[in-house]
Amino acid sequence: MEGGEAMRRNQTVICAPIMADTVDQMLNLMQNAKTSGADLVEVRLDSLKSFNPQSDIDTIVKQSPLPTLFTYRPTWEGGQYAGDEASRLDALRLAMVLGADCIDVELKAIDEFNTALHGNKSAKCKVIVSSHNYDNTPSSEELSNLVARIQASGADIVKFATTALDITDVARVPIIAMVMGEKGLMSRIVCPKFGGYLTFGTLEVGKVSAPGQPTIKDLLNIYNFRQLGPDTRIFGIIGKPVSHSKSPLLYNEAFRSVGFNGVYMPLLVDDVANFFRTYSSLDFAGFSCTIPHKEAIVDCCDEVDPTAKLIGAVNCVVRRPDGKLFGCNTDYVGAISAIEEALQGSQPIMSGSPLAGKLFVVIGAGGAGKALAYGAKEKGARVVIANRTYEQARELADVVGGQALSLDELSNFHPENDMILANTTSIGMQPKVDDTPISKEALRYYSLVFDAVYTPKITRLLQEAQESGVKIVTGVEMFIGQAYEQYERFTGLPAPKELFKKIMAGY
């Protein structure tokens, strides 16, 4: 479903940066930008391999299917132009005369540009005065001073781009403000909520004019960009790494299917306590939490569900109307129910759990490992914890009344047949898809193998289990199971279970 104009709730412009070797290539890309749903194209003159200002700018202005913003970025501001200033500023002045809708002049060059104009500014063409900082995000006070300087230069539109060294840097930024890099993605998605004038969206993955730009397609089709407004509630997944997560696909499509006014984003977070201190408003309504923050987040919550407290890990945080944070754990419900369903198969439903009495081996003693160990014990299984660090395995085994092993011992551990194996570590996750926590030979002692990793869906561990004739449960099944409860807690609405299964069927 395209982000259609009929439902547009904001006036924030999506601008496609156009970088190419020739004018013809640029015109093709502009056509793509229009088809993709962009409102404006940024013509990066510094990317052209040969450039005849008068004829090239005239051709672009006349043939562009969308309004144009001309930028001629010098190397000293992160661009590709290494020639003299006078020619560069002449070309921008020419764009203004020939009918450009906007031009972008750097703050460091605006005085020289204004002097050369002699007051002959075009009424139609807006001047964006820009400042780019590729090193960091200055303090709020420094940013305010920067904005004042840009405004005083006679800018029609103020633009600055800073670099996020931490996700909390985004909180300091007003106006056309881009915070570059993966940690700044939020600034590019939620700018309509805060009245931002423009955001950049690329035509292709990886073809960016600055770090961290999303594609136009993702802005419109994943993040429902046109539907975001001042009252949109913000949700997201907190993790490190986080770009691999399928949660934004799942939740945003579910929000759109019922008209729920929310947006869900990947949030690359280094320090969760600092994140929650910075984003403390009711706008930030709920969060999923993944590796490595599930334990640290417990201390950030004002109240923690008793089961999550026992496990010592939280994967779902909801902000209550009074601003207080409530944490719970939906991981173990999702995983245990998926394992039970697979064990049950087509058997008639028995009373009690098919896990009762089974030897249940959990690999990993982190947040997800604790959740699985606790869940298996609750169902009557005998629990064994295998972990790289034996001491951590021992600690968790003591809590659940189980046995501890180091990971090295796991391949030789087979006191009985028909055991259950659950990997809760990131072993085998992209990009290290050739890794596995246990030898293939040892898998024959198990009746079922579960892997919490879901990128890729079939890990080497699951592939080798299948080849050994063992039942498998994928991380996708756990992921869907844990998402049901989170969605209901986020929205107060019943989870669209069939939609979730359909979306994830492609992965």
Secondary structure elements and pairings:
Elements: E1 13-18, H1 23-36, E2 40-44, H2 53-63, E3 68-71, H3 85-97, E4 102-106, H4 110-117, E5 126-132, H5 140-152, E6 157-163, E7 176-180, H6 185-189, E8 198-200, H7 216-222, E9 233-239, H8 247-258, E10 262-268, H9 272-278, E11 284-289, E12 303-304, H10 306-311, E13 316-319, E14 325-328, H11 331-344, E15 359-363, H12 367-378, E16 382-387, H13 390-400, E17 403-406, E18 419-423, E19 446-451, H14 460-467, E20 471-473, H15 475-491, H16 497-504
Parallel strand pairs: 1-2, 1-8, 2-3, 3-4, 4-5, 5-6, 6-7, 9-10, 9-11, 12-14, 15-16, 15-18, 16-17, 18-19, 19-20
Antiparallel strand pairs: 11-13, 13-14
Helix pairs in contact: 11-12, 11-15
Domain Shikimate dehydrogenase substrate binding N-terminal: 237-317
GO molecular function: 3-dehydroquinate dehydratase activity; NADP binding; shikimate 3-dehydrogenase (NADP+) activity
Organism: Nicotiana attenuata
- Sheet of most strands: 8 strands, parallel
* CATH homologous group name of the largest domain: Aldolase class I
Note the gap between the termini: 19 Å
According to CATH, what is the class of the largest domain? Answer: Alpha Beta
CATH topology of the largest domain: TIM Barrel
Integer average pLDDT:
90
The number of helical elements comes to: 16
CATH arch. level architecture of the largest domain: Alpha-Beta Barrel
Query: Given the helix and strand composition, which structural class is it?
Result: alpha/beta
State the share of residues found in helices, binned by percent: 25-40%
Strand content: 15-25%
The geometry reads as elongated
Say how many strands there are.
20
Radius of gyration: 27 Å
GO molecular function, one term: shikimate 3-dehydrogenase (NADP+) activity
InterPro entries: Aldolase_TIM (IPR013785), Aminoacid_DH-like_N_sf (IPR046346), DHquinase_I (IPR001381), NAD(P)-bd_dom_sf (IPR036291), SDH_C (IPR041121), Shikimate_DH (IPR011342), Shikimate_DH-bd_N (IPR013708), Shikimate_DH_fam (IPR022893)
Enzyme class: oxidoreductase
Protein name: shikimate dehydrogenase (NADP(+))
